[in-house]
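re: ur question from earlier - yeah i can do the single chain one, its not a big deal. heres the input i used so u can compare w yours
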Amino acid sequence: MTTPSPAPSSPSRRAYDDAATLSEMRDDCLAVGRNLPLDRVRRAATSPVPSLHFDEFPREVPKRDIRVDEAAQRLANALHLHLD
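and the output i got, formated as tokens:
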């Protein structure tokens, strides 16, 4: 047996109504704009896009050294991966 749900306390207030007035929401938006660090986003949005031309990329890019410590080597050997 189910019981009917109680009627809303305020019939003029709907679930999709805004809880604030337009001026309160505007003030909130202005406060967010003042407090967010958007300088990096502004610079990224207005800077030129990187080039896709092959000749503008560096020729030699050094590769990082990958070190395999003793514990990783023992684990790899146990799994028969044999890292040298």
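The chain has a mean pLDDT of 77. not sure if urs matches, ping me
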